[in-house]
Amino acid sequence: MTAADEVTRAVGAVIDPELRRPIGELGMVRGTRVDDGTAWVDIALTVAGCPAAARIESDVRAAALSVPGVASAEIAVGVMDADERARLTEMLRGGRPARSMPFGPDSLTRVIAVTSGKGGVGKSTLTALLATTLAARGLRVGLIDADVHGFSIPGILGLVGPDGAPPQPTRIDDLMLPPVAHGVKVISIGMFLRRGSGEEPLGAVAWRGPMLHRTVQQFLTDVHFGDLDILLLDMPPGTGDVAISVGQLLPHAEVIVVTTPQRAAADVAIRSGLVARQTGQRVLGVVENMAPLTLPDGTVLDLFGSGGGELVAQALQTDAEPVPLLGSIPLSQGVRASGDAGDVHLVTDAADPAAVAIEAVAEAVLASGRGLSGRPLPMRVR
């Protein structure tokens, strides 16, 4: 093997931070040569202004310099032309037509919608923490912020740029590459809104049914998540347009119902589970959030009462479909602070009682996974 071949192999193994695949496999290495100890490498970024450009160039330089006999490296950075991008997008789709649904009934990706009857029960925080907890276990996880009117996932996960707005997805023709936070690929309508001057907030979304349906559909078909183990959807509260659209687009999805312990929240949460079941989805289980907290002196603070999670689980139970209480997550100041700061507190602070509870929920979700018996396994020749 020549020195140029060794450089090609080393450089080709560099992982694209957005696509999470080797750049050699993606057709981003145009050529290499070695002259008098200097490696010359020509690479092509997917698009002009690629946000990962500096990291890719740095990783390519380090890879080239790791080859024995290479003392210096010169990296020429260009941009893919239309034909190169067309070949790339065709490869990424794996032979599927443009704008087709990659998460159909035969997909190996588990799709789990996290829903609630009313807002303010901590559904989005729970979804984000469940996603990062599963990713920390080595699973490939995607997260769609389907709460178009009340999006909050980017802020909770710390996906905020210098201007205070979430980063926009990179576009490769008609494909969007979702930003990654804590190992989770994320898409949200908040990534397409910009701030005005000064400290103005992000714009609001005032859309009705057809636009909401189209947005959810685009998130499912036009965003390149790649091969996922689990796709989570943070649903808006209630049983409105988005819940119906997700039921139509993903009738095979599983549903986690989130409630607080109080009776008023539990009564409404039951309805979201019933609507999911009407569209053909399976209620995976119930999570009780903001449950009683044991204080340092041993007393128990049951700010929102107790028993709501069990009440919802029992109400949704049927002979054909058992609905377990997946977990009861106590009130946690750390969880609240982490959501405000965009820091995934639970992944690192195992001493928080809420961390133990969210780990138990993640374990219960994995234990209830679908089997592969009788399902076709997709094969791709590379």
Features:
382 residues, alpha/beta, eight-stranded mixed β-sheet, three-stranded mixed β-sheet, 15 strands
Task: Give a nutshell description of this structure.
With 382 residues, the chain is an alpha/beta fold.
Task: Provide a descriptive summary of the structure in words.
There is one protein chain. It is built from twelve helices and 15 strands. By secondary structure, the chain is of the alpha/beta class. It has an eight-stranded mixed beta sheet with strand order 8-9-5-10-4-11-12-15, with helices on both faces. A hairpin with a 5-residue loop joins β13 and β14 (300-301). It is elongated. 41% of the residues are buried.
List the helices and strands and how they pair.
Blueprint: H1 3-12, E1 29-35, E2 38-45, H2 53-65, E3 72-79, H3 82-93, E4 110-116, H4 123-136, E5 141-145, H5 153-156, E6 170-172, E7 175-177, E8 180-181, E9 184-188, H6 209-221, E10 230-234, H7 241-249, E11 254-259, H8 263-278, E12 282-291, E13 293-294, E14 300-301, H9 308-316, E15 325-330, H10 333-341, H11 345-348, H12 353-367
Parallel strand pairs: 2-3, 4-10, 4-11, 5-9, 5-10, 11-12, 12-15
Antiparallel strand pairs: 1-2, 6-7, 8-9, 13-14
* Low-confidence sequence ranges: none
Strands, total number: 15
Which descriptor suits the 3D outline? elongated
Strand content: 15-25%
Percentage of residues assigned to helices: 25-40%
